[in-house]
Amino acid sequence: MINVGIIGAGASGLAAACVLAAGAEDVCVTLIEKKEQAGKKLLLTGNGRCNYSHTVISPEDYHASDPAFISRFLERFSPEDARSFFLSLGMLSAERNGGLYPASFQASSVLNVLLDALKQKEVPILCNSAVSDIKPDDLGFLVKTEEGKTYRFTHLILACGSASGTKDRRPFNAYSLLEALGHTVAKPLPSLVKLNGAEGFEKAWSGVRVRARVSLDEDSDTGEVQLTDQGISGIPVFQLSHRAVRELEDHSSVSVELDFLPEYSAEVLTKLLSATDKNRAVLSVLRGWLPRKLAEVILKKKHIYPETKAGELTEQVKRDLVGFIKRFPYRVTGHGSFAESQVTSGGVLLNEITDDFGSRLCPGLYITGELLDADGKCGGYNLHFAWGSGKLAAEAILRGKG
Ligand SMILES: Cc1cc2nc3c(=O)[nH]c(=O)nc-3n(C[C@H](O)[C@H](O)[C@H](O)COP(=O)(O)OP(=O)(O)OC[C@H]3O[C@@H](n4cnc5c(N)ncnc54)[C@H](O)[C@@H]3O)c2cc1C
Hints:
The protein is α+β, with helices and mostly antiparallel strands.
């Protein structure tokens, strides 16, 4: 008889529990969860719709200490495997812009099928139980909780996720549990997070949503950017945040550039400006191109009086103005907190983990999901890693059983 304890009833822990519970009659599984309910974060994902995977995934979609590990992982758990996993639990999927979602477009469908499968197999989920100590011994693992309970397991899956997106009164302690077991943790930092600056004009553009290309050197992403009273946010900003946040560790600021009219070349825009009615105020022209607040910030930064007539602008000033709209420099000096981020970068080094997500240092221990030093872009990649790592760890435990 094997007796598996899973610490953390989030995405990877629930997936692992479903595979174990369906795998063999003589496997006993227990989930231990510190929150009052299982899968709370799942309900927040994809703005309540749960973008649970992506139709096309490649190793480049992840930041990882060992990219080859991710390649091997994706060979064993593809987007089709994710879709089949949920179909086996009775959930239909739908695709939107390459992202995979439950057909209901409700995150609660994902959580419900997972919890229903566990209920059917009578898998206990012990909520309000925060694991505070793990002692490996000859029989497996002795696990203690902050609430004073002790449990014994032959195998343990650590699926504690990260501090991202949660406001917990208790500090996130999984890294110290893992370090006590001999593992090395690459410095955790918030990722998929907003970037803050202190240029002095943030209040003036606050509330604007604009389509833009955001670039950090050769990396760029295009989509809706939110201009806030603290800086910049939105998916294109999130996609560059892993790198920006890491660079801010070593530098006091990082320069990003925003192209506020990515579909138009500088040449075309300069021609349009030249061809406009000479008596039209320049602010009125820019209001046809950009949200008003943003146009005002741009003119102020370029020291151009908003009522200046288009005909009064020299060719050089027109080119400068257009260049500024296309390559608006923004100095990033900070970023959102863990609670404000969607994922955490850093975590347990992948070279300390087997391809089955087993610990190379502590036999019988498995580590899954966001606890590991692999974080994906925005778009279903992080949950894909969570389901896949949970499933592969559970299958390895089942294989080792016989
Ligand atoms: C707002 C938001 C939106 C997101 N949207 C998406 C999306 O659409 N697509 C996508 O791919 N990813 C998304 N993500 C990221 C995704 O949710 C995570 O990457 C994923 O949930 C990680 O799975 P996990 O199993 O590693 O951890 P989690 O799902 O975080 O689960 C970990 C669980 O362990 C518990 N735990 C922690 N420590 C202990 C302890 N000591 N004892 C007991 N229990 C403990 C936690 O309470 C938690 O329930 C989003 C994240 C956020 C915050």
